[in-house]
Design brief:
Number of helices of chain B: 12
Strand order of the largest sheet of chain A: 1-3-2
Oligomer: heterodimer
Distance between the termini of chain B: 22 Å
Shape of chain A: globular
Distance between the termini of chain A: 12 Å
Shape of chain B: globular
Helix content of chain A: 55-70%
Number of helices of chain A: 16
Number of domains of chain B: 1
Number of strands of chain A: 7
Largest interface: A-B, 48 and 47 residues
Number of domains of chain A: 1
Number of strands of chain B: 2
Structural class of chain B: mainly alpha
Radius of gyration of chain B: 20 Å
Order of helices and strands of chain B: HHHHHEHHHHEHHH
Strand content of chain B: under 5%
CATH topology of chain A: ABC transporter involved in vitamin B12 uptake, BtuC
CATH architecture of chain A: Orthogonal Bundle
Chain lengths: ~450, ~325
């Protein structure tokens, strides 16, 4: 809190100053957190330590155990990396669907745009040119090769631009129509990536050719683009073959995503999102610029998927349009709903759990089942049967998710009551109905804030 | 349909014929149009299911396309492995089996659709509007996987039991083909469409449906059993989807577990195009979408067809959410 008064400057110097301040203030903050809510702080600390040490523990203990003693479904490096990728996406979708209440069924489009950003700007795909910028390839190597710290901002910009492009015409639409438009967009983008492989197109006016494209291969078609450079920092690659380095990079990106999302939620914009989610007309009356607010929700939400896509493509070293299907959009949506729409921690938990089940647990169960009963259908094939049942059951029995945000829980559970009362001409004051899961008062929250978030 | 609208639709169709013949030549144009019409009639059966349900409870029944898929899967199992119908089966037996399959499948999909409504949508009647939509998406994945469990991942094909004879040769027309399958599509769908119109317009239950669509609360106060009416709507939608499934497998001779997604979105686009909640609109929209599919497949590229259909869907929702013929109900978007 004292960091406010000790600001040393602006720009990078200021940031470093803030970081130093936060680091210095950390023990004190931690002590206050411990005093404010002991159980919560200890649980979070343990979880953070587990997350940070897991890759090493896996490498040293779990992997040898699974290999030599008995196969247990510990998530391996690939699974953990994908857990972080989906965590970033779920946090991003939560901004659109959770904070702003705009149901996006085509979120996979931005994931694809991010992946193809990596594919275009860090691969030998455009072999007729050679652009090498700070990248770890020899000069004159065919293709465009940009370093990751240019790829990630590019992915953010491209995804955010398309997010705003999708948002702009859909501003009038509400609810289910918006959902269908986003779905259509999510289907069209991969179709474009799949089909723009052999473009032959001539456009001429009065005999003068304006545009002439002959057999242009933009996206690699159904085969996609392969290989893609891995992200490289100081000679350490973050590709699928580099073991735990990629995992830590994923964890770092996820932490950044959480911090950004938390700050957005608490910003003026975050409150505006809450307002349009609750009642768009009322929000507009109170002076919220709904156009700007919605467009920013789409753009910012999309940029998270852009980062996730760029990381995924460079991690796998290849991308094709088949990665980006409607089912991926829905998988991310299920993560958000399962965890608790609107609550970043719930969404994070949902993403980690579902990706783990999808990528580690079901394949393990599959091999176990096949070993015992070879004729039994393999559960990996029916992951979406499980997820579908989960979605229907969640909507029916716990629509607010397992770790709900308090506002959404209140909205979803008193809604029926409110409708009934409204019809009788009685007004219900939602404020009086408090659904605080741990009996915390609203004022407790500010004391719980980790210091880094306030200072960033 | 108001008479001025009817006139406009007829004029638009005539202009389309003239422009099409001039642009593509008569043979290619009429041939494509026939294919489009056959596709469109099947889309119409499914689109009516979307439009009926949306008209009554304002739910995009995402699982509807997959109910249709299960219908076509069941028809595949009955016609292929179980009854083993081939082109060589005697004609009377063939007709009998088709009628039996049609009856069984329609019964099964109708039961399924009513059960889905019971399990997945009815408990959410008072929930926020997006809750049943998300539930429907979940249900769609469940049904797809049921199809996958039943039939496995590959395409499932039956013999072409109608043969490849061209009906038009009997009338001395060369160059354009109408085969028996296409006649069959019309023979099954057109009576069903007429029967549905009759049901909704003249019967007591049909009146209850229209009343519920306008205002469920007032309809309830006037003595309409709203829950029963909604169940009947899902029943009718299921019957039509089952019929569409049988027609689809006999027309295309192949089905696959994820057929419902694309087919369903085509049909939903048709329903939105015609003005969701509007029965005639759904049929008109379906025929237009059938044409769009057929013309895009033939004159552009099958790779782009889906993108074009989705583009049409987005364009309508964004620029004219009431559809071509307008909704029967106000303030939908």
């Amino acid at each position: 809190m004292t960091a406010e008064t000790e600001r040393v400057g602006t720009g990078p110097v200021g940031w470093i100053g803030h970081l130093v301040d936060s680091a210095a203030a950390f023990p004190g903050h931690y002590g206050r957190l411990l005093a404010a809510n002991r159980t919560r702080t200890i649980v979070l600390t343990v979880l953070a330590i587990v997350a940070l040490t897991y890759p090493i523990v896996y490498q040293q203990v779990f992997a040898p155990f699974s290999r030599n003693v008995f196969p247990l479904p510990f998530p391996d490096e690939t699974t953990v990396t994908f857990m972080t990728i989906f965590a970033i996406m779920a946090i991003g979708l939560n901004i659109v669907a959770g904070f702003a209440g705009l149901l996006d069924l085509g979120y996979v489009a931005f994931y694809a745009l991010g992946a193809y950003t990596s594919a275009f700007f860090a691969s030998p795909h455009f072999g007729s040119v050679s652009i090498v910028l700070f990248a770890n390839v020899a000069d004159g190597f065919p293709g465009i090769h940009l370093p990751f710290w240019l790829i990630l901002p590019l992915a953010v910009i491209i995804a955010a631009t398309f997010g705003a492009l999708l948002g702009a015409p859909t501003l009038r639409l509400r609810g289910d129509y918006l959902a269908i438009v986003t779905l259509g967009f999510g289907e069209i983008v991969p179709i474009f990536f799949k089909n723009l492989a052999a473009i032959t197109f001539t456009f001429s006016i009065g005999g003068a050719t304006i545009i002439s494209l002959q057999n242009v291969n933009l996206t690699g078609g159904p085969l996609g683009i392969n290989p893609i450079d891995p992200f490289i920092i100081f000679g350490i690659g973050f590709g699928a073959t580099s073991g735990i380095a990629a995992v830590y990079f994923g964890i770092l990106l996820t932490i950044i995503a959480i911090v950004v999302a938390r700050n957005l939620e608490r910003s003026r914009m975050g409150r505006a999102w809450g307002a349009i989610r609750e009642d768009e007309t009322a929000a507009e009356m109170m002076g919220v610029n709904t156009v700007r607010t919605k467009l920013l929700a789409f753009a910012l939400g999309a940029s998270f998927a852009g980062v996730a896509g760029a990381f995924q493509a460079s991690y796998l070293g290849a991308t094709t349009s088949d990665f980006f299907q409607f089912s991926t959009s829905i998988l991310v949506l299920i993560m958000v709903i399962l965890g608790g729409i609107g609550n970043i921690w719930g969404v994070l938990a949902g993403a980690l759990a579902l990706t783990y089940i999808d990528k580690s647990f079901l394949p393990w169960l599959g091999t176990r089942v096949q070993a015992v009963a070879p004729d039994f259908p393999n559960p990996t094939q029916f992951n979406f049967l499980i997820f579908g049942i989960l979605l229907v059951a969640m909507m029916r029995f716990r629509p607010e998710g397992f770790l709900p945000s308090r506002q959404r829980a209140a909205e979803l559970s008193v809604h029926g009551l409110q409708d009934a009362e409204e019809e009788m001409g009685v007004e219900v004051e939602t404020d009086n109905i408090s659904i605080a899961p741990h009996g915390q008062a609203e004022t407790d929250r500010s004391a719980e804030l980790p210091s880094e978030e306030k200072d960033l | 349909m108001r008479s001025s609208t009817t006139v406009r639709v007829i004029v638009a169709l005539l202009v389309f014929q003239v422009v099409g013949v001039l642009a593509f030549g008569p043979e290619a144009f009429f041939q494509t149009e026939i294919i489009g019409l056959s596709n469109g009639l099947i889309f119409a059966l499914v689109a009516l299911g979307y439009t009926l349900v949306y008209g009554i409870i304002e739910l995009i029944n995402f699982a509807h396309g997959d109910v249709f898929m299960l219908g076509s899967m069941m028809a595949f199992l009955l016609i292929g492995p179980i009854f083993a119908v081939t082109g060589a089966t005697p004609i009377l037996l063939k007709v009998g089996i088709i009628l039996l399959v049609l009856g069984l499948t329609m019964l099964a999909t109708a039961t399924l659709n009513v059960s889905i409504e019971r399990v997945a949508y009815k408990p959410l009647r008072n929930a926020p509007k997006l809750a049943p939509l998300i539930s429907a998406i979940g249900m769609s994945f469940v049904l797809q996987n049921v199809g996958l469990l039943l039939a496995g991942p590959g395409n499932k094909s039956i013999d072409n039991i109608f043969g490849t004879a061209n009906v038009l040769t009997a009338f001395g027309v060369e160059g354009i083909t109408i085969n028996v399958q296409q006649i069959f599509v019309a023979v099954v769908t057109v009576p069903l469409l007429i029967a549905l119109t009759w049901f909704v317009r003249t019967t007591r239950q049909g009146r209850a449906m229209r009343a519920t669509a306008q205002d469920p609360d007032t309809a309830g106060l006037m003595g309409v059993d709203v829950n029963r009416t909604i169940a009947v709507t899902f029943l009718i939608a299921g019957l039509l989807a089952g019929a569409a499934g049988v027609v689809q497998i006999l027309y295309n001779n192949t089905t696959v577990w994820n057929l419902g997604f694309r087919f369903g979105l085509n049909s939903f686009t048709a329903a939105v195009l015609g003005g969701i909640g509007n029965l005639q609109g759904a049929v008109l929209g379906a025929i237009v979408i059938g044409f769009v599919n057929a013309f895009s497949d033939r004159f552009l590229s099958a790779n782009w067809t889906n993108a074009i259909v989705f583009g049409v869907l987005i364009a309508i929702l964004v620029f004219r959410p009431t559809g071509l013929l307008g909704q029967q109900l106000a303030d939908r978007a």
